[in-house]
Task: inverse folding
């Protein structure tokens, strides 16, 4: 028997992100990591060169969900 947690908790909201990372050639034998993250639910995309930008993008969605959860728990 398969239990579907989403059916048991319809107020629960999940987020799906797709993350792609690659090494970019900067020339003179230097490379640097680049990335693209997409929030699959909304389609919103952000390109980034540092972890702070990635973290900020994720927190934008997860922080909002966290606030919604706090409001509905009270």
Result:
């Amino acid at each position: 028997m398969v239990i579907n947690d989403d059916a048991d908790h319809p107020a629960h909201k999940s987020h799906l992100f797709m993350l792609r990372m690659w090494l970019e050639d900067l020339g003179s034998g230097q490379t640097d990591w680049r990335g693209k993250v997409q929030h699959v639910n909304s389609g919103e995309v952000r390109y980034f060169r540092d972890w702070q930008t990635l973290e900020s993008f994720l927190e934008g969605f997860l922080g909002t969900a966290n606030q919604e959860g706090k409001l509905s728990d009270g």
About this structure: The mean pLDDT is 81. The longest helix spans residues 51-73. The chain is about 35% helix and 35% strand.
